[in-house]
């Protein structure tokens, strides 16, 4: 892929800001609005932030790791950036749309490229009723919470909660309980990404629950629905020798 203009953005961490200064001395850059491609310096959290902030621009994003994990990032190097951008392979990711109604009746919406998570707010366990496409599948889940993960986020919080890793392009999402007490043996479900997952919080004013889409949190929710956002996507760029699909497969064989 040929790019005429590039923008470089960085997380506020000192190591990312220092990298930004060095790269701007080496390469001619423009603002993200005028660029053909955006280079993001930071970790996975900053990549998620960039995906949300630049979504309306429709520009592909090439991440270089100046954070900790860097699962969504490429290796950092200052030399040969333009050649790496030309060789980079695109991966299209599709966010989930979270729609909530809180205990005051107010409606909220947010997008999640990683996951939508519901978590108890107090010492009391959450009680959730779960329906898929309007059909009740679990009358009462007593737990710390639950989450719905997109493929790009399946190796993050979802994996930590013993959820399945989902290869990119499979058309699946994961529904995963967090510290389930009853039913204790339920480990979640893999669902088509066309499905709508609906949570009803039982006793929402007593057993208070928050819902978070990536980094957008809504407190004291009564109902939450999650489904793939129609007509919305973003493009990530990866070095061909270290692409996202290969990372997701490799993650399943780590000790």
Produce the secondary structure layout.
Elements: E1 6-10, H1 14-26, E2 37-42, H2 44-53, E3 61-65, H3 81-87, E4 89-93, E5 96-102, E6 107-112, E7 115-120, E8 126-132, E9 135-143, E10 145-149, H4 157-160, E11 172-178, E12 189-192, E13 197-201, E14 209-213, E15 216-218, E16 221-228, E17 234-238, H5 244-251
Parallel strand pairs: 1-2, 2-3, 3-17
Antiparallel strand pairs: 4-17, 5-6, 5-16, 7-10, 7-14, 8-9, 8-13, 10-11, 11-12, 13-16, 14-15
Describe this structure as you would to a colleague.
With about 260 residues, the protein is an alpha+beta fold. It has 2 domains: about 5-95 and about 235-250, Rossmann fold; about 95-230, Sandwich (Tumour Suppressor Smad4). It has 5 helices and 17 strands. The chain has a 6-stranded antiparallel sheet, with no helix packed on it. The chain has a 6-stranded antiparallel sheet with strand order 12-11-10-7-14-15, with no helix packed on it. A 5-stranded mixed sheet has the order 1-2-3-17-4, with helices on both faces. Helix 1 links the parallel strand 1 and strand 2. The longest helix has 13 residues, at about 15-25. It is elongated, with a radius of gyration of 19 Å. The model has no long low-confidence stretch (mean pLDDT about 95).
């Amino acid at each position: 892929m040929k790019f005429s203009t590039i923008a470089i953005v960085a997380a506020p961490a000192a190591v990312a800001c220092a990298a930004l200064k060095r790269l701007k001395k080496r390469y001619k850059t423009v603002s993200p609005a005028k660029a053909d491609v955006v280079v993001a310096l930071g970790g996975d959290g900053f990549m998620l932030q960039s995906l949300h902030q630049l979504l309306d621009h429709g520009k592909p994003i090439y991440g270089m790791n100046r954070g900790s994990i860097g699962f969504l990032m490429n290796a950092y190097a200052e030399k040969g950036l333009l050649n790496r951008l030309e060789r980079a392979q695109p991966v299209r990711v599709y966010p989930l749309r979270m729609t909530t109604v809180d205990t005051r009746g107010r409606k909220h919406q947010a997008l999640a490229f990683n996951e939508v998570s519901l978590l108890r707010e107090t010492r009391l366990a959450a009680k959730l009723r779960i329906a898929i496409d309007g059909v009740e599948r679990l009358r009462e889940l007593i737990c710390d919470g639950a989450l719905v993960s997109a493929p790009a986020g399946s190796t993050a919080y979802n994996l930590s909660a013993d959820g399945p890793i989902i290869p990119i392009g499979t058309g699946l999402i994961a529904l995963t309980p967090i510290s389930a007490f009853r039913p204790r043996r339920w480990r979640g479900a893999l669902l088509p990404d066309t499905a709508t997952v609906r949570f009803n919080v039982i006793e929402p004013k007593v057993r208070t629950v928050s819902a978070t889409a990536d980094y957008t949190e809504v407190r004291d929710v009564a109902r939450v629905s999650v489904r793939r956002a129609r007509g919305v996507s973003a493009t990530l760029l990866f070095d061909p020798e270290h692409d996202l699909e290969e990372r997701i497969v490799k993650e399943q064989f780590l000790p």
